[in-house]
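Why do we care about 3D structure at all? Because function follows from shape, and shape follows, mostly, from sequence. That is the central idea of this module. The next example makes it concrete: a single protein chain, its amino acid sequence, and then its structure expressed as tokens.
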Amino acid sequence: MAYTPQYYPGSSHVAVNRRKHMSGDVEKLRTVSDDDLVAALGHRAPGSDYPSTHPPLAEMGEPDCPVRQMVEPTPGAAAGDRVRYSQFTDSMYSGPSVPYFRSYYAAINFRGVDPGTLSGRQIVEARERDMEEQCKAAIESEMTCPALAGLRGCTVHGHSLRLAEDGMMFDMLERTHLEGGNVIEDKDQVGVPIDRKVNLGKPMSEEEAKKRTTIYRTDGVRYRSEEEVLDHVHLVHHRRTMYGFRPETAAETAPGVGPVTYHTV
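And the structure:
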């Protein structure tokens, strides 16, 4: 029998969007060329070879290891690529994605990636060509609005600030700007000027951003309106707490526990 993963509870469009990000079932909205992406990341010159940290695995003579025989290396690992990163910042003002769901997207749908989740930014480390594959997929999809999200390898501040009058998220390093109705990036992710204008496409309208967002907000879909989500969070919290404190009472059906009732303030 085929197994259908259950990624996230809830019936609102926010919950649906969260399931889409986790499953990788996201819509492609724009195309960014490989050279433009490499320029925006800033790790190497567009068109240059990938620097390596070791010879290709095929030339190294790997040890006789059953795990290595079972697990096919990623293209970056097989080629000996060095490890590099991409890092996104997402606005709290109806940005399509949020750090946790960028990490879910990377960890569930890509191999050999190391996602890191913080309050205002999300980083993915991987072999360089593997990182570029994941980053390109994310930046071209509905997970990213070029006005409400961006590559920021440093000085990430802006995710919680009010949007500018033109709808752009604040960026102290001014890596992007509006030009002719499109978002243009003319600095790499750490703010170094690049020799091109990377066209990231048109920003989402406020209505489209609210339709595609994964953020619960009091002026949109209220978190406390999602009873199934709250029940799931309470269940996980109960089990994690009780298994660490009194494991014998962790299960709702444990003897003497009685029915567990969750109260939402």
